[in-house]
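hey so i finally got around to running the thing on that chain from the lab meeting. sorry it took forever, my laptop kept dying and i had to restart like 3 times. anyway pasting the input first so we r on the same page abt which one it is
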Amino acid sequence: MTTENLEKDTSKLKKCMLGFWNFITHGGALIGFLVGLITMFLFVKNLVYQTATEEEFLHRVASHVRPALIFDENFSILADQGGTEYIEDIDISLNEGGVPTQMVVHAKTHLSYQPFLQSMTANDYLITAKRGKKYDWIFTFKQFGRGGDERHIFRIEIIN
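ok and heres what got predicted. didnt touch it at all, straight out
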């Protein structure tokens, strides 16, 4: 073997090693980039999951999406689900038997749509609504079924 042939073989080996090294370098960079991208995706996904399952976050979202208020015939607030941001006060008129006959909801601001009012007890009412003075809504009750509950519990939902 001559030195010239040896130099050609060494040159071929160098080119082959250089090509292999370029392949490893670029492939490693590509693999590193993909691993980083997947890690970032999993981090963001975990962060969103943790935030979305926190009770405080869920209450905040619920109070903005479907604000509601649960109360009884004395307007004792049993649960505030964001409704006090929209409702200033509620006046409830009762008949001699302690059954609600009329309810005036005093809103803090203009409510474009009628609030959704429902009974949370076994007492059944036919509830009609109309606008009152300024921002008020007047609900009139006609009881057509009595479930035996002494308390009258209501839920009012603000429709945005």
